[in-house]
Design brief:
Organism: Anopheles maculatus
Radius of gyration: 32 Å
Strand content: 5-15%
Structural class: alpha/beta
CATH topology of the largest domain: Rossmann fold
Protein name: VWFA domain-containing protein
GO molecular function, one term: ATP hydrolysis activity
Number of domains: 6
Pfam families: AAA_5
InterPro entries: ATPase_dyneun-rel_AAA, P-loop_NTPase, VWA8, VWF_A, vWFA_dom_sf
Largest sheet: 6 strands, mixed
């Protein structure tokens, strides 16, 4: 794991490697044996060890293991490479440390020989998987090379062992989808994987739904006795233990889908595997694992990780008793010692360098603890070693890790990418409709079945939208269970308000709320109040608040609309009719009041007047407020030199993509929020006690606390570089000519507006520019990366220039040259990641541009620059033919008005944001 070390940590080895000498943190010194022996010979009466000088054994050597220095995310797949932090860790400094040897992967012949020797003749299923694996490994496409990391030799051995023991259980397609956790892959690499599977798996027509798979199999049942338990066709003797209190005892309903997953978990458990369960929040990962351990009678140790988990806290727990430090074993160490099952929850929340210490424990049963003890495999442990601080790994020890899927909205680390091939991995999804219906009926036996059915169908559609990328948050079974349990407990409560408890957070994202409420209304759920801005529910809540707090009418009249005075201290003003930006007042611009000309938010808590009082305003005052409102709006437009007509024209292009803009901005905000996440600042004189400085505290040190704050860059750490996007738009004459045929130019202008609107405010993280290509120009500059349009006026000017160029340019096509120039220009820039998106109307054959030539142009600077093409127009099926003959995941066909922003958002999520 040398590739995961910070460069300053690795640099500590320089003196040891080159000079055979090292200064230890406690003041002692290590000396080479030659120098130590000379020093001892010159001073025979001196005890060098007592003076803190230690002899390095002449047989001492360092063997470092590391993975290749490839960049994470540069391939545009959204699946991080297994090399850890981005950037090359092999530098001029590290090159002088070691003699390097490359360990190549096994060839197909060698791998087949190993599998044949261990598990008998290779079956047809294993043969298909082998072909897919070596196709991905030998491909020159970086996307396929990254995917190949999930089919390592270790994974192939695991698959072969499962097939050997439970051969009739699953086919090649199921095993591959499970190995890649394709359910949670971004769409681009998933399409590439599907393309490879279509090529090497007979009769493969895309991933079958779990419902089709489950319906083709016999129902799963559970039978248990005092001696054994059987799940489906797999049985195991019940475990005998004295730690009965640690065996989970939960309420669990036998959902068929969950039982089928539990049988697969049991099979891998019996094969000696450690397990990894990945899924969205609220899909039942903990419940499934606890039920499995309950059936087997296995005691459980539990540990939940978080952002501040350290290596020490993962292995030891330090406490101070009577002025003495005592170390208690963590749940991990207890599980190792006593043979319990360690459940590691929220593994994606901890830093990768912390969870990576589990690697040797999972692989070899070894781990060095921070108090000097060492966990060792049971075969190497002796009584003497145990007494000397060696802890043998109990033969029954097993680890089950639970993690949320990587990426937005959970924003965890990609545990699967870092350590996934050490575990038998399983994707946990929400129950299928029939299974979910059965589950909800158990939680709400008194709730009408028709209501439950509508909830199941509506939330199933919401999850499909999340999978397709049109919704960010994947609503889980947990939310539906909460609704049904509430209705069971309080049947008189309005369904609209109960559902609103789940949706309230989305009120801060109106576009998302509109999508969700539209789906719920379509399924007959009574939430019309939410669809209309939640006014009815808000009124109910205001009424309850009024009943508790306010029962009187203010009785104060309005005089006339005005802006109001501006408070230089921006203090909150409640009521009155003097200050601009106040709340609950009269006449002035503000929020929650009455008679004011327009809304003005000063950032304070809003005090809302009742609707009845706000409506009790003379008509002449209302009219005056409307006139003042319009004048202020026109003045705002004049500030940006934009007429009302121009504003209306711009809205024609901005309104259709408003929802997609909001969704993309949410993703960008999450990226920015994570980058700015605060870290623990140590060595403070106040804050929370730092458990790593207990010794210093006992000796009188005062700076033994830690505080949360934004982390300053470490000395020598390079400043984070922005990501770069170049949008190459097609403004050729054919775009204008055939716009009336399929609306291609309108779609392109909307996509351009989406980029300009969504990326506004994120210049520190992402810089973009927009250039056009046509029959008379290779690169027409529309937006400069250093001066992107900041208001609607400039954005309208941009799309007007694009429209005018397409109308008046000469005929011809420079798609190929424009692509090559854009890719080459970004390759020269020093940026974190670079992506080029080319928009074209696929009018290529007329100018002799073949799919192969376009494919070569896109890949000319891979992996430094990731380039894609989106065909937004086509005569007949030319666009489809070109896309099918290009590298999978590099070309898209978009003939639907709503698809283009969605495709671009997928590209951003898969390439730009990982």
């Amino acid at each position: 794991g040398v590739h995961r070390l910070h460069h300053s940590t690795l640099g500590i080895l320089h003196r040891l490697v080159h000079d055979r000498e090292l200064q230890l943190y406690d003041g002692r010194r290590l000396l080479s044996h030659e120098r130590y022996d000379r020093l001892q010979a010159s001073q025979p009466d001196q005890n060098l060890n007592a003076r803190g000088i230690l002899r390095i054994h002449p047989g001492f050597r360092i063997i470092a293991l590391a993975e290749p220095a490839t960049s994470v995310g540069a391939d545009g797949t959204g699946v991080p490479a297994r090399s850890g932090p981005s950037g090359a860790w092999i530098s001029a400094e590290t090159l002088s440390l070691f003699l390097f040897h490359e360990v190549r992967g096994l060839s197909e012949r060698e791998e087949r020989h190993v599998l044949d020797t261990l598990y008998g003749p290779v079956s047809d299923t294993m043969e298909q998987i082998l072909r897919v694996a070596h196709h991905l490994r030998t491909s020159s496409d970086p996307v396929q090379q990254t995917l190949a990391g999930n089919l390592s030799t270790r994974q192939l051995l695991r698959i072969a062992r499962r097939l050997h023991q439970y051969g009739a259980d699953r086919n090649a397609a199921e095993l591959l989808h499970a190995t890649f956790l394709s359910k949670f892959m971004p769409s681009l690499p998933r399409n590439v994987l599907d393309s490879a599977m279509r090529r090497y798996l007979p009769n493969y027509n895309g991933p079958s739904s779990e419902e089709e798979v489950s319906n083709s199999k016999n129902p799963i049942t559970v039978e248990q006795t005092d001696e054994t338990v059987r799940i489906g066709r797999t049985s195991v003797p019940r475990y005998r233990t004295e730690a009965i209190s640690k065996i989970p005892d939960i309420v669990f309903y036998d959902v068929p889908q969950h039982l089928r997953l539990m049988e697969r978990l049991l099979q891998d458990f019996l094969l000696g595997e450690h397990l990894l369960l990945v899924g969205n929040q609220g899909v039942g990962k903990n419940k499934i694992v606890d039920r499995l351990l309950q059936l087997m009678g296995r005691p459980r140790e539990y540990i939940q990780l978080h952002r501040d988990t350290t290596v020490q806290s993962l292995t030891l727990q330090a406490t101070v008793r009577d002025g003495r430090i005592e170390y208690e074993d963590s749940p991990l160490v207890k599980a190792v010692r006593y043979g319990h099952v360690l459940v590691v929850d929220e593994a994606d929340k901890a830093p990768v360098h912390v969870t990576c210490i589990l690697k040797t424990l999972v692989e070899n049963g070894e781990m060095l603890l921070s108090d000097g003890r060492k966990i060792c495999p049971p075969s190497t442990a002796t009584n003497a070693k145990v007494a000397d601080g060696f802890l043998p790994t109990h033969p029954d020890f097993r680890m089950i890790v639970l993690a949320n899927r990587p990426g937005f909205p959970f924003l965890g680390n990609d545990f699967f990418a870092a350590l996934g091939d050490l575990f038998a991995c399983h994707a946990v999804d929400n129950p299928l409709p029939e299974s979910e219906l059965f589950l909800l009926q158990q939680y709400g036996p008194s709730v009408p079945v028709a209501t439950i059915r509508r909830l199941v169908d509506a939330f199933a559609e919401l999850r499909d939208m999340a999978d397709a990328g049109t919704l960010h948050y994947p609503y889980s079974t947990r939310e539906v269970v909460a609704i049904v349990r509430h209705l069971e407990r309080f049947p008189s409560d309005a369904l609209a308000e109960v559902i609103g408890n789940v949706l309230d957070y989305d009120r801060y994202a109106p576009e998302t709320l509109d999508q969700v409420t539209a789906v719920l209304l379509r399924h007959g759920l009574p939430i019309g109040e939410y669809a209309e801005g939640c006014e009815a529910i808000a009124a109910m809540r205001r009424q309850r608040e009024l009943q508790l707090t306010v029962r009187s009418h203010s009785g104060k009249d309005v005089a006339g609309p005005k802006h109001g005075k501006v408070d230089p201290n921006n203090e909150p003003h409640v009521g009155g009719n003097t200050w601009a930006g106040g709340t609950g007042g009269r006449d002035t611009a503000g929020l929650g009041g009455k008679g004011g000309p327009y809304r003005l938010d000063a950032g304070h808590k809003v005090h809302q007047l009742s609707d009845a009082e706000k409506d009790d305003i003379p008509e002449e005052v209302k009219q005056a407020a409307r006139e003042m409102n319009r004048k202020a709006f026109e003045e705002k437009l004049r500030e940006i030199q934009m007429s009302p007509y121009e504003h209306k024209v711009y809205e024609q292009y901005a309104e259709p993509v408003r929802r997609q803009v909001q969704q993309l901005r949410i993703t960008l905000q999450a990226l920015q929020a994570r980058a700015r996440e605060r870290q623990w600042q140590r060595h403070r004189s106040a804050g929370e006690l730092d458990d790593t400085k207990l010794v210093e505290g006992l000796t009188g040190e005062r700076a033994i606390y830690k505080q949360r704050a934004e982390q300053d860059p470490e000395p020598g750490q390079p400043q984070e570089k922005p990501k770069r996007l170049k949008l190459v738009v097609d403004v050729s004459g054919s775009m204008y000519r055939f716009n009336g045929y399929d609306g291609r130019l309108d779609r392109e202008l909307e996509a351009t507006v989406m980029v300009m609107e969504a990326f506004d405010g994120f210049e520190g993280k992402i810089r973009y520019d927009i250039v056009g290509h046509s029959g008379e120009a290779v690169a027409v500059p529309f937006v400069n990366e250093n001066n992107p349009p900041k208001d609607a006026k400039r954005r309208l000017e941009t799309i007007k220039m694009m429209h005018a160029h397409s109308q008046f340019c000469w005929s011809g096509d420079h798609t190929l040259a424009a692509t090559e120039q854009a890719v080459d220009e970004l390759a020269k820039e020093d940026c974190d990641e670079a992506i080029v998106i080319v928009l074209s109307d696929a009018n290529l054959a007329r100018y002799g541009i073949t799919p192969r030539k376009l494919n070569t142009a896109l890949a000319r600077q891979t992996p430094k620059v990731q380039a894609y093409v989106i065909f937004i127009g086509s005569l007949d099926d030319e666009a489809k033919v070109v896309a099918e003959n290009m590298t999978a995941g590099k070309a898209f066909v978009c003939m639907d008005l709503d698809q283009l922003p969605q495709i671009m958002r997928q590209i951003f999520a898969a390439s730009l944001l990982q």
